[in-house]
């Protein structure tokens, strides 16, 4: 009877079953470890592409970019806008390297008191641009966009991994899509370092959650070579490591070497670059002086933020770096923060996420900088997406499709056009 069944099974099988396929006919299979990321990355990519398309249409329809300086929001083509403002500086560093001469005083009476210098822009992102250009043969602009786009998908995957571990796969997928449409998302596919930083930060936090301390320390080290705001991530990793060492059970389970290594390695990238700038420019505080007097960016304990909020509340613009439309959006974001923070805390996320998010928010709101860029400055604070993603995960996919279609279309304006053309990103 078993023989008959075997024969029947053989007869009903397709001709190719049981035969070894020639090497040329094998279908490429996605590795099992990558399959969970397919849907969130697809959602992120499609949503982001729609927003970028709307941005391009708005640029061409208005045509204002063609009248602007190619360094300051202009260019011959719409895509040139993506490499203006900070993008111009990053491309300069990628092409020429740094010129850390001593601070050059400017004539008194102006807003800035020292000449701007490229050392204000950290080396990891322009280094990647130069490396990709050398390897691929692409120009610096094409390499910069390639690095940003690839890093943005790595970041979306990291956000998915973190949120999925805390709130489920569906919420993780939605969180990846939300990151494509949040205010400030326009710089994710531009010559800006945010995508690289968020990719590092998301996976660093994930490694801490999984107690992979060596990887977390190395990622925090890299973050320190990418942006000064990495201090929030470095502090969060250090705090998580200290708490781990302070608890007997976790110390016994995870050992001492890993957390200690993470604590020591995490700040080295940031400290090394800031020290190099100081030594090269003949003043150990040169980096901070340059930020304060060359860009008017410095920590003022929230005085500037309160000034902007007070002015906009009564319809005035008697404050530094006033841009009406971006600033109004920035006010709405600030007003939403307490609610988003409360919802995040209600989910009881791991300490590293809480510390990283709160430290980042305090840094942004406590610093004098372009208030209209609040959305962009908060772009790395992905833990705030946890609660909205979990709430949206209760909706069915048709409703989610309507939400993301609407949000992606609108993001072409509020997340792209507003910051690049109506303000200074």
UniProtKB/TrEMBL annotation:
Region (Disordered) location: 1-29
GO terms under biological process: GPI anchor biosynthetic process
Compartment(s) where it occurs, according to its Swiss-Prot or TrEMBL record: Endoplasmic reticulum membrane
Keyword terms: Endoplasmic reticulum, Glycosyltransferase, GPI-anchor biosynthesis, Membrane, Transferase, Transmembrane, Transmembrane helix
Membrane topology, record value: Multi-pass membrane protein
Predominant location: endoplasmic reticulum
GO MF annotation list: alpha-1,6-mannosyltransferase activity; GPI mannosyltransferase activity
Membrane-spanning parts: 37-59, 138-156, 189-209, 258-279, 318-344, 351-371, 400-420
The keyword GTP-binding appears for this protein: no
Gene Ontology CC: membrane
Entry-linked InterPro entries: PIG-V/Gpi18 (IPR007315)
Biased composition (Low complexity): 1-15
UniProt pathway annotation: Glycolipid biosynthesis; glycosylphosphatidylinositol-anchor biosynthesis
Matches recorded under PANTHER family: GPI MANNOSYLTRANSFERASE 2
Annotated protein name in UniProt: Uncharacterized protein
Organism: Streptomyces griseoruber
